[in-house]
Specification:
Length: 350
């Protein structure tokens, strides 16, 4: 029995010793600081993200900054009517005039491209005697198409160099007097009869003043071509050799465009163009025996003036005056003037 107690005591002591080997006192860090390392790479997150709507808005802003658009449309007319018993007498008349003006300017860095287009077309109707009968006759009184383009590169302050190309003609046949068409008389003009193509290379100066926006183009190298496609017209427009005449020379052009008032109630535009040709027909220069190509050297002058007066946003009065001189067509100064009141629409993106 004593042996059994002795064995139990020995086993108990061994068990206590084994537990002591894994006691807390054995894993103390002796006050050493623990260090933790993070081996993972981190990147800062950007809150911005791709937006198609934002990109579209940015592209639109860039286009608007580079492109300037100026468009206007006018429809003017007048009606005068008298009864048969009207004591002062008079003729019933109807006048209609439509016009369009478009100007687009693209600018990027040192490059500028200006494109312009304008069109005017007007008719009036009056009664007249045709073979002893009273008949209302429509007669064209305004007819013009004008297109131009001008690429320019900035040279120094306010100066640039480049080209100017302008084209002018008309829509419909023209007659010398009312009733000529009905009477079978010969027309005096038609589409591309005459037609004018002017091209020049030179320098442009823009006056640095908002109060007086003047632009001057000086072209030491210029060309002026006159077309006459309809040879059945009574006028030759100086085109004696074939269907066109090409002149070489120099040109000067002045442009002024100014708007007054917050609502642009008054606008004045003027263009003065002059061409001086030292060779009057380049198509004949190759013929040594033909001396007419160097004769009759005269300038061509054209001065256009337009005044727009707005009564309201959609009603305006327009005054237009053009002076034109071309000795090849006539030795006299040609003058055209017009005063009209009607509807107008103007669009500007700036």
């Amino acid at each position: 029995m004593k042996r059994l107690y002795a064995l139990i005591l020995i086993a108990t002591l061994c068990s206590v010793n084994a537990m002591a080997q894994v006691s807390i006192d054995e894993v103390k860090s002796n006050n050493e600081k623990a260090e933790f390392k993070n081996e993972m790479k981190t990147n800062d997150l950007d809150a911005e993200y791709y937006s198609e709507a934002k990109e579209r808005a940015e592209r639109l802003a860039i286009r608007k900054e580079r492109n300037t658009v100026d468009f206007s449309a006018n429809l003017h007319g007048s009606l005068t009517a008298f009864s048969k018993s009207w004591q002062a007498a008079g003729d019933n008349t109807v006048t209609i005039l439509a016009s369009l003006n478009f100007l687009h300017t693209y600018k990027k860095d040192r490059f500028t491209l200006s494109n312009a287009a304008s069109a005017k077309f007007g008719y009036n109707n009056m009664k007249m005697d045709l073979n002893g009968k009273q008949k209302g006759v429509w007669f064209k009184n305004v007819d013009e198409i004008a297109l131009s383009t001008s690429p320019q590169w900035a040279l120094v302050k306010n100066w640039s160099y480049g080209a100017n190309v302008k084209f002018r003609t008309q829509f419909a046949p023209g007659y010398g007097a009312r009733g000529d068409k009905q009477l079978g008389n010969q027309r005096v003009s038609n589409f591309m009869t005459p037609g004018y193509l002017d091209a020049s290379l030179g320098f442009t100066y823009i006056l640095p003043s908002e109060k007086f926006p003047l632009k001057v183009n000086l072209a030491p190298i210029a060309m002026s071509t006159t077309f006459r496609d309809d040879l059945s017209t009574s006028k030759d427009y100086g085109v004696l050799h074939g269907h066109s005449k090409v002149e070489g020379g120099l040109s000067v052009q002045l442009d002024f465009d100014k708007t007054w008032g917050k609502n642009g109630w008054l606008r004045y535009r003027t263009t003065a163009y002059s061409f001086y040709g030292w060779i009057t027909d380049l198509s004949q220069v190759a013929k040594a025996e033909d001396k007419s190509a160097y004769e009759h050297i005269v300038p061509t002058l054209r001065w256009e003036n337009t005044i727009d007066i707005k009564a309201t946003k959609y009603i305006s009065t327009q005054i237009y005056v053009q002076l034109y001189y071309n000795k090849a067509e006539t030795k006299q100064l040609q003058v055209s003037s017009m005063l009209s009141v009607g509807l107008t629409y103007t669009f500007k993106n700036k």
